[in-house]
Amino acid sequence: QVQLVESGGGLVQAGGSLRLSCAASGRLFSIHAMGWYRQAPGKQRELVGTISSGGSTNYADSVKGRFTISRDNAKNTVFLQMNSLKPEDTATYYCTYTGWGLVKYDYWGQGTQVTVSS
User: Fold this and answer.
1) Burial class of residue 55, CB neighbours in 10 A (0-12, 13-18, 19+)
2) pLDDT tens sequence across 10-64
């Protein structure tokens, strides 16, 4: 099992910044990816971005140029730096961990609320 603990959500004005963190612990995989999804009220959960164990990143078009995913391998922690926040970024943000062994394993964090006021 992999446990994910998120932190860093909160309330910010439009144009502001927030940084989310997600620490992974437990039975970790050498080949894995971590990432962030978000879900706004009444909407489907959507991908924000991912980062592989090798450091390759992938972002949704809606956040490219504003959000950056990075990682601290020594601490098994991934970060989501969110700049130029917009009211439409308001959502619950979920950290994810995908590990590949003989099969693929997916884990989700409990979610952290990000609210952007106009």
Assistant:
1) exposed
2) 999 999 999 999 999 999 988 889 999 999 999 999 999 999 988 999 999 999 9
DSSP 46-105: EEEEEEETT--EEE-TTTTTTEEEEEEGGGTEEEEEE-S--GGG-EEEEEEEEEESSSEE
Nearest in space to 18 (alpha carbons), one of 115, 92, 97: 115
> Confidence band (pLDDT; 50, 70, 90) for 9?
very high
Tell whether the torsion through CA atoms of 83, 85, 89 and 91 is positive or negative. positive
Q: Which uninterrupted H or E stretch holds 113? A: strand 112-117
Q: How far apart are CA 24 and CA 10, in angstroms?
A: 21
Residues 6+ apart with CB under 8 A from 27: 1, 2
Q: Which two tokens stand for residue 46?
A: 């959507």
18/58 Cα distance (integer angstroms) = 19
